[in-house]
Amino acid sequence: MVIQTANQAYQKNKFDTASPGELTLMLYNGCLKFIKLSKEAISNNQVETRNVNLIKAQNVIRELMVTLKVETEVGKNMLQMYDYILHHLTEANINNDIKALEEAEQYVIQFRDTWKEVIMINRKRQHGGGGRA
Fold first, then answer.
1. Residue 132 predicted with pLDDT over 70
2. Which of 2, 53, 61, 116 could form a disulfide with 37 if both were Cys (CB 3.0 to 4.6 A apart)?
3. Is residue 57 situated within a structural domain?
4. Is residue 73 over pLDDT 90?
5. Domain, as residue range, for 37
6. Domain count, the chain
7. In a domain? residue 94
8. How many CA atoms lie less than 13 Å away from 122 in the CB half-sphere?
9. Is 80 exceeded by the pLDDT of residue 63?
10. Keyword set for this entry (predicted)?
11. Where are the alpha helices (H) located in 1-133, listed in sequence order?
C-alpha cells in the first residue's frame, strides 16, 4: 500500500512538472500502451478489453488533435494524419482488425520517435548538453 501511494505521488509529480513537450511524449507512449493491450486482447479474443483500450487510444489521439495548432501547413498535415490514425483505431475496434491496429501503431511510433528527437534537440539548445526524453 505504501509503495503504491509513493508510486502514485511520483507519477503525479512527474505529470505536474512535465513540459508541454514531455506531456505530448507521455500521450504518445500512453497511446502505444493502449494499442499494445488491444493487440493482446484481439489475440486472446477479449472483446471488452480490446474495446476499452482502443477507446483509450482513440481518446489520446483526439486529445492530440484538439491541442494541435493548425495555423501552419505542418499542423494541418499532422491533423490529417491523426484523423487517419483515429480512423484505423476505430476500424480495428469495429472489425477486430489487427492489421488496421498495427498500421495505426506504426504511425504513432513514428510520431513518438520524432517528438522524442525534437525534445532532445531542444534540450541540447537550451542546456548545451544532452538529456534523455
1. no
2. 53
3. yes
4. yes
5. 21-113
6. 1
7. yes
8. 11
9. yes
10. Bacterial flagellum biogenesis, Cell projection, Chaperone, Cilium, Cytoplasm, Flagellum
11. 2-17, 20-43, 47-67, 73-95, 98-127
Burial of 60 (0-12, 13-18, 19+ CB in 10 A): buried
Residue 1 lies in a domain: no
pTM passes above 0.90: no
List Cα–Cα distances, 108 to 9, 76, 77, 101, 130, in angstroms. Answer: 28, 17, 14, 11, 24
Q: Which residue has the cell 483526439?
A: 62
Q: How many C-beta atoms lie closer than 10 Å to residue 9's C-beta? A: 10
In a domain, 131, yes or no: no
To which residue does cell 486482447 refer? 41
Band of pLDDT at residue 10, cut at 50, 70 and 90? very low
Let me know: does 7 contact 118? Beta carbons within 8 Å.
no
Report whether 32 contacts 9 (CB < 8 A): no
Question: Are 61 and 86 a contacting pair, CB within 8 Å?
Answer: yes
Q: How many other C-beta atoms lie within 10 A of the C-beta of residue 38?
A: 27
The CATH number that applies at residue 89 is 1.20.120.340
First vs last Cα of the chain: how many Å apart? 29
